[in-house]
Write a structure and sequence with these properties.
Elements: H1 3-18, H2 20-40, E1 48-54, H3 59-70, E2 74-79, H4 83-92, E3 97-101, H5 105-110, E4 114-121, H6 125-154, E5 164-171, H7 178-209, H8 211-216, H9 222-250, H10 260-284, H11 288-305, H12 317-322, H13 327-341, H14 345-374
Parallel strand pairs: 1-2, 1-3, 4-5
Antiparallel strand pairs: 3-4
Helix pairs in contact: 2-11, 7-9, 7-10, 7-11, 7-13, 9-10, 10-11, 10-13, 10-14, 13-14
């Protein structure tokens, strides 16, 4: 190896070690990807929250519930007192499934013709498909167990049909089409990624070219500079959102059951988060490369911990708790409820309040830091 090449390599290593910020980002991002993918990239769904409406309240119905509990697929989180309450819990996303046991369950079970209803929230096809298969299998196993008990008790070894049938019904997405789940997620990713990346790189580009100093010496106020820089990209992100919704609806058949006005209002609130992250990244980065890497540091956790690709129920408990710090999580819940379920404002108010708090805090903090950087 000649000395000139060694000199160039040595120079580059010196340059890398001097740019500690970029070096840390380069080293941290692969580690972050490893852990996020290692723990979040799974479809092994467990502890699906379920609401139970047991109208029988008998020994036989409790035995059926015990069979569901023993399978470890479901978590009996809610006990409903009516079908309307159960439906509301599923609509709000608090319960992902519902088990309805009729009042004559015990009598019909004795006659060998009992039926129970198992309803599923199909807005997340991965969770719904797992819950569908698990409920069917649990019902078959419980029916087989009842048949064996009957044979042992009576001594009659004859063939007869299973005494129990679990009738499953999928709401909002009966065919479990994956596009119904992914396209609303794409809307959230567009609003977050485009606004954050473009806002950060645009402002840093002004600093690299030296033109931001020219803007500072003009009569333009700091807030006017902030709004003027981010508003065009916010409008473009809105345009992208409308295009994705239109293509998703007319090409992929994704339903739009909620109010478009409410959808755009929620999207505008979520835009504050992306703009705030981009603005903050522009204050800590000196080059466009650093700005991009800084945004990616926030983008990667949002992708994997928001429920965009992988169901949150399949993740370890620690990652589920961390997901509450991701604004994208709340937006995806809202946009999927609006598009697929036609939810009203009352159904999304908890997630909407969280989204507003995140947007105001992130945008406010970034604006203050940007203003100080200008001063």
């Amino acid at each position: 190896m000649n000395s000139r090449l060694l000199s160039i390599i040595r120079k580059e290593f010196i340059q890398i070690t001097r740019d500690t910020r970029t070096l840390m980002l380069i080293l941290v991002i692969p580690i972050m990807q490893l852990f996020l993918l290692g723990y979040s990239a799974t479809s092994d769904v467990r502890n699906v929250p379920i609401a139970v409406f047991d109208q029988s309240n008998s020994r036989e119905s409790r035995a059926l519930l015990d069979s569901f509990r023993a399978a470890d697929y479901f978590s009996f989180t809610f006990v409903s007192v009516s079908e309307d309450e159960l439906r509301r819990l599923v609509e709000l996303g608090e319960a992902r499934a519902g088990l309805i046991i009729p009042p004559d369950y015990a009598d019909r079970l004795a006659d060998g013709e009992a039926q129970v209803a198992f309803v599923l929230d199909g807005s997340d096809p991965t969770v719904a498909a797992t819950a569908f298969s698990a409920a069917t299998l649990i019902g078959q196993q419980h029916a087989t167990s009842l048949m064996q008990e009957h044979i042992q008790r009576t001594g009659m070894n004859i063939q007869f049909r299973p005494p129990l049938e679990v009738r499953t019904q999928v709401w909002y997405n009966p065919d479990l089409v994956s596009a119904y789940f992914m396209i609303p997620g794409v809307i959230g990713m567009i609003l977050y990624a485009i606004t954050a990346i473009v806002t950060a790189s645009t402002i840093v580009r002004e600093r690299e070219r030296g033109t931001i100093e020219q803007l500072i010496v003009t009569p333009i106020r700091p807030w006017e500079l902030v709004v003027g820089k981010v508003l065009p990209y916010a409008l473009l992100a809105f345009l992208d959102t409308l295009v994705v919704i239109a293509i998703g609806h007319w090409w992929f058949g994704v339903p739009v059951r909620g109010s478009m006005l409410l959808i755009m209002l929620v999207s505008a609130i979520f835009l504050l988060t992306g703009l705030g992250v981009g603005l903050f990244a522009s204050t800590v980065a000196n080059t466009q490369q650093e700005a991009m890497l800084t945004v990616w540091m926030t983008l990667l956790p949002s992708i994997f911990l928001s429920g965009f690709f992988f169901p949150l129920q399949a993740m370890p408990q620690v990652l589920q708790i961390l997901s509450y710090a991701m604004p994208l999580r709340y937006y995806l819940v809202i946009i999927r409820n609006l598009l697929l379920k036609g939810a009203d404002l009352a159904a999304i108010q908890t997630d909407l309040i969280a989204l507003i708090l995140f947007g105001v805090v992130i945008m406010g903090a970034a604006s203050l830091r940007f203003r100080k950087r200008l001063d």
